[in-house]
Amino acid sequence: MKAVILAGGEGRRLRPVTGETPKPLAPLLGRPVMEHLLRLLAEQGFTEVCAAVKYRAEELMARFGDGSGLGLSLTYRVEKEALGTAGGVKNCADFTGDGDFLVVSGDAVCDFDLSALARRHAEAGAAATLALARSPEPLPYGLAVTDEEGQVRAFVEKPGWSRVVTDLVNTGIYVLSPRAMALVPEGTPFDFARDLFPLLLRRGEKLLGVAMEGYWCDIGSPLAYYRCCADALEGKLKLTPGDSFAAPAKTGAEDAEDEPEGLDCPCRDRAQLMGTLSELFLPLGADYSDGLTLSAPNYRLQIRPSPSRSAVRIAVHAQDEEFARSLALSAREVAQALDL
Prior knowledge:
CATH architecture of the largest domain: Alpha-Beta Complex
Mean pLDDT: 87
Largest sheet: 7 strands, mixed
Shape: globular
Oligomer: single chain
């Protein structure tokens, strides 16, 4: 099955972190978010991919090329005008052809079994199948109400708490049939959640909602991005083979008092950066008795400010040296992104 990646947005809310960088190129453990997604697609057999691009399209195309380095065939369709989610996919109609295909967002992070989603769609004969995720804080998302057979019966877009009727949120990951896309006008702004899916419901078409197992995060805001980075460091997000990165292991003596050992991360304001890191890691159970320490059964991550210059030091204590090296490098990337 083919796949279309929506990667044309500017990511304005994320600019405090990424600046002018396209949101799909935001770094996550050493690689752009969209690269993690492309690797996931290739691993699950979606080897023909088209990216719908607009904002700084040349940067995305230069970064990923034809996709051969990631084990897939990657092509692009450039939007001259913003066409919305469904309109952007319609712009790829010459690529998708007359078969079912997968649609994913280039700035979403997940480890879903997307091939299983495609099978569920084919078995149900649905016009569209939506990947849903359970969220205890669903207000920023569109909600999908499903019946006992998993068919979508209603949508609630970004509700207040008084209108929350389910914890199932629309992830923006879909499998679509040609008969669904036939309803999308060409060259006209058209959105999946706002326009196409309600239209399909009114026409009595079958919309399937599948509650997915695994991790999903929309990194649309700085807070969501930082949480995703922390989740990746904690191992809550399962990355595809080759995406495990690690950082310098410091297994032995405790850090010296005069200059903490570890990986150096220069910054503009070490106290301010430590404060930002402390806020980020507080929900993860960090300890603050000796700098910032995050402990888990197989490692201990410690971040302390340098006493002699504007920098923080990151040390990881673990038996697995490669894992420790990878984790420290990843933590430094997070710190660098937070040094605003």
